[in-house]
Amino acid sequence: MSLRRKKRLPEKAVLELRAKGPGVRRGRIPVPDLIKICEEAQRAVNRQAEFMEGRKTLHPGPITDAIRQECTLELIALKPGCTRLQFGIAKPQVPLFNDQPTLGPDVVGEVALAIKSLGNGKGTIREVDAGVLQALYSLGAVVENKRISELEWIAPKTAERKRVSAPVNRKMRERVAATISSPRKVQRQIDGVLDMADFKPNDLRCRIDPAIGASVVCTFDERDATQVQLLIRQPVRITGEAILAPYTDRVENLHVYKIERLPSLSLGEGNFFAESSLSELAAKQKVKPLKDISALASGFPPDENIDEFLEEIYSARK
């Protein structure tokens, strides 16, 4: 009885990039272009993943271990034709908790939708995070040379989503540049303490102080004046249209659509007496299970004297 080795099925790609241009030959691509494409594609995926996880995307530091494990791309095939680069999700040698990456394909699809919205030039651009916009602008630099004229970003079909194809070209990059350099209007929700209000006719303003971050100046309509007056010095949730500063994700102004009082628990007070389960608290704070114990490691800057640091703290308390 003969035993036949089971044929290994080819890995299914989560992303395909098709390079077109006079400098791209059948199944071949210059190494500098390949490196640039891979770096910028990974950057765009990382920024989109951070946005979807509710994290800050405009930062100089590294990404989280969870995003690195679920969204690190791996080149798995170089196909002929107009040179097709196919990527899978890099799998760790020793998977933690036997987890299978689930975030990566969703992130790739969202990037494709963002590129498509920015490149078609029709209608209103969907909301794209500032960090993602900057990553897409850098990706667009690939088509600025004379070798590559267009890079097609393709998110294959999944059980939840149809196949999405979007071109990265000069037109898309120009629209990204215009979007980044202009104030953007997006829907925002801010929780904080309503610290100030000005009821000057035709110039109704208030200020909300979030638990984390800078204060935000808000404008409101006459219909909300009574509610604003009643909620001064109270924890509130404001929902409205925000104007984001160019090149950043900072809210310059927010026009109030809805303002409501929040219980003190929502701003962190009274948590000791709350009866929320661990899963409920994790959902509220967008906390995921820890997969790498090294994430808890920390240290004191080597160029600082910890004894002097502690002495300053104790002296300030006297």
Describe what you observe in this structure.
The protein has 2 domains: 15-180, no CATH class; 184-267, OB fold (Dihydrolipoamide Acetyltransferase, E2P) (Beta Barrel). Helices cover 30% and strands 25% of the residues. The protein has helices spanning 31-52, 65-71, 103-120, 130-140, 170-180, 225-230, 278-285, 306-317; strands at 15-20, 73-79, 84-89, 150-155, 164-168, 184-200, 203-210, 216-219, 235-244, 251-261. Helix 1 (31-52) runs antiparallel to helix 4. The protein is globular and about 70 Å long. The N and C termini lie far apart (86 Å).
Quick tags:
318 residues; alpha+beta; OB fold (Dihydrolipoamide Acetyltransferase, E2P); 2 domains; 5-stranded antiparallel beta sheet; 5-stranded mixed barrel; 8 helices; 10 strands; globular
Distance between the termini: 86 Å
Report helical residue fraction.
Answer: 25-40%
User: What kind of oligomer do you see?
Assistant: single chain
Can you count the beta strands? 10
Shape summary? globular
Helix-strand pattern: EHHEEHHEEHEEEHEEHH
Pick out the low-confidence regions: 93-99
Rg is 25 Å
Summarize it.
By secondary structure, the chain is of the alpha+beta class. The chain has helices at about 30-50, 65-70, 105-120, 130-140, 170-180, 225-230, 280-285, 305-315, and strands spanning about 15-20, 75-80, 85-90, 150-155, 165-170, 185-200, 205-210, 215-220, 235-245, 250-260. Strand 7 and strand 8 (about 215-220) form a beta hairpin.
